[in-house]
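Please produce the structure of this protein holding adenosine-5'-triphosphate.
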Amino acid sequence: MQTYKLIAPAKINLYLEIIGDRPDGYHELVMIVQSIDLADHLEIRPNGTQNFHLICSHPQVPTDETNLAYRAAQLMKQEFSKAFANYGGVDITIDKRIPVAAGLAGGSTDAAGVLVGLNLSWELGLTLPELQQLGQKLGSDVPFCLAGGTVIATGRGEKLDPIEDLENLWVVLAKYKSLEVSTPWAYQTYRKQFGQEYISDRPGVQSRTLKVHSGPLVQAISHKDKTKIGQLLHNDLEKVVLPEHPQVNHLRNILQQSGGLGTMMSGSGPTVFTLCQSQEEAETIKNKAKLVISDPNLEFWVTRLSSTGIKVIS
Ligand code: ATP
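Below is the modeled complex.
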């Protein structure tokens, strides 16, 4: 049995709107999700035992059964017990490059990588939609992480409609190293503060969801109107995360004043990004922001938008 090496990209949210509550207790969302080149590197190596073993040296990443990548392996074992009995367990090594609890879907993309890796290792021949069906059981972002690109995501975020790829755009990402935001906290706080504004009837939810397909940002993306794309970035969760974390709000303001097409927080944060026309522009903005906030706790990444999800490199 072969060892597989995979690239598992992070995502940013170009748009995140909270529509209302769902009967299953989750939020009904309308998002435009975008994969980026910043990625974790995974290795799936057969270990000749009947166990999974997870290796990751990042201090914030658990290596037990709470790791989403480990849970992905357990799910595959449950669903394909014959293949597991036949081929056995694997060592899963995660070279963690995506910041943790950052609103960049780091755990979800690792889980997506394990689904793809075991599909190959165990010669299951599952298709992308079949893998996405499994991925949904692990988390709402997993189906997107499998496919990647530029996508309208609705429902809990698991219903995907690919749109035009956004090529040749760059982002500067910035995050305070020691600051994490829990995704459940962000959504629960939003519900407490803005729940009375939710659309609650199903036809209302459906008609709002359909509107996004003809919405201004989707149009700007299909017309490749970069200026408009930058102006139309939106994230409802900023309304709860920024007041709670004034230093993130300050960082967002500094990035916005430093140039680029537009600045926004990704997902539940606390990562903030600025969309840029080129790598040079992104580097300039990073350097300007670094001059204003010279904090060793603040980290920056310059990376490109990507049109792919999980990639198998060998
Ligand atoms: P999302 O954008 O999907 O809400 P996130 O990027 O905000 O996710 P993650 O990096 O996935 O957040 O981490 C959230 C929590 O999940 C972390 O605090 C960490 O303890 C736990 N976790 C479990 N598995 C992983 C993993 N493979 N990588 C990173 N964190 C993981």
